[in-house]
Amino acid sequence: MPTEGLTWVPSSWPVIICLHQSPVKLEELESDVDTLSEASRQALYLLFTGDPALWTIIGISFAVSLRAVIFAAPAALVCAFLLAYIQFPGRRLAITLFNTALSIPAVVVGLTLYMLLSRVGPLGDLKLLFTQDAMVIGQMILCFPILVAMGHAALQATDRRLWETALTLGATPIRAFLTVIHETRFGLTAALVAGFGRIIAEVGSSMMVGGNILNHTRNIPTAIALETSRGSFAQGIALGLVLLLLSLALNLTLSSIQGKGEVIP
Amino acid sequence: MTEMTLDPWLTLWKLSFSRGDRIILRDISLSIRPGDLTLLTGHNGAGKTTLLRILSGLLPPDYAELEYHGSKHPYDRQSRSFLRRNTCYLHQQPYLFDATVFDNIAYGLRRRGLCKQDITERIKTALQATDLEYLAQRHSHQLSGGEQQRVAMVRAWILSPQLMLLDEPVANMDKPSRRKGLSLINHMRRDGIAVILSSHDPQHGELEITRHLHLYQGSMAIKEQQELAPNPGIVTVNHRFPSP
Predict the structure, then answer these.
(1) pLDDT digits 0-9 by tens, A59-91
(2) Which pTM was predicted?
(3) Chain B residues with CB inside 8 Å of A167's CB?
(4) Is the dihedral of CA B30, B32, B36, B41 positive or negative?
(5) Does domain A42-257 have CATH number 3.90.78.10?
(6) N or C: which end of chain A has fewer CB within 10 A?
(7) DSSP string of B125-172?
(8) Best interface-test mutation with A: which of B87, B95, B112 has the largest number of A CBs within 10 A?
(9) How many Cβ pairs within 8 Å bridge chains A and B?
């Protein structure tokens, strides 16, 4: 059947290829479908020609994961700072718990959140299940321990004189905190990148609470999972390649920001 | 110094500090007047740095009372805030921010809300006065140890605090830098800033020292050298030495 050959891409793509009169011929797709290199080439072609279906999936992936990191980062930074700079009862235990939380499987977070958000769950009234907001919440829970653990490691390595110097030069504690963050920006950016890396590629939570709904909650990892379940391994890998390329672009942007900004806030 | 400056700006009463079982400072009282240049000596671990950090509001003691603005206050959050606003503590190895010398010196001025032009002019004047103008746009990582120390001194001096607390400020300097550093300290004193300078080396001939405090064997003992001081400032002398 001709349509079977089209399962190499997430379900809406072939339709859009036809509608947009893409130069990719259906016969070509069928003939090359089994080769990884060709699938990758096709995926990259769709990527760089601005294929709407692919870019919707990419857009959902990045919108959800960036929102999750941006929402989680402020509280995580404060937690990391408190763990590194303030002595309080239970501090060692808190550090151990955050380090342990690094190992939580994404699917467990997804399942727990699913139970909370489902209609019979305690948060069912919020009607968040199978929405991007639910995916954001799940990804926030997943990246928070990474941001705290890596942020704490970066801040713990800073010199205490930094904090004291800022204070003795007249900075308020909040301003001194911002100065410490600025001075530790390389380590903290690494924490953000690691946190983002963890959630942009996670399937379990997004699949459970997002539902993999096309044009709504389907992101790159859930699309890959779908392709794999259909036996289209090469296409899954091609989508993974797209994910890697876009992550590379994001990291290049971040590293260029890291190198700038000599003025102390 | 005029007679007006004889009133203590700050008096510290019954300061005690211990770390675990080890008593580091016990029952110290001293007053600080504008224009005092106090040399604080003692062996390694005698508590010099601890005393300076407590006076700067960076380290809370076990117990202390402070007298300022004409009344006594416990060493609480409010007093710490008062000390931080009015003192400047310089680490033995100062921390310079990851920025240019100019931005480092501007840090404290920016916190005081000065306008850009005012900040630039003040920094220019201060760097000229200390022969450090050539370093203005140099990144802090490119400075030698002595240069870092002098830049940090200028960064503190430009804020004109009431009390300057310098922890071994000339330890990393070669002879010419040391001379310039000591000259800057004298300059601070003449500006009416009270300076307490710690050192394990009592030989600071070029400094216009007005009194000499000595901490002994990690615990508390203050030796007064009134003959040094035109206006001696120590109000309490405590010669209790720790039992071995």
Answers:
(1) 999 999 999 999 999 999 999 999 999 999 999
(2) 0.80
(3) 57-58, 84
(4) positive
(5) no
(6) N
(7) HHHHHTT-GGGTTSBGGGS-HHHHHHHHHHHHHTT--SEEEEESTTTT
(8) B95
(9) 62
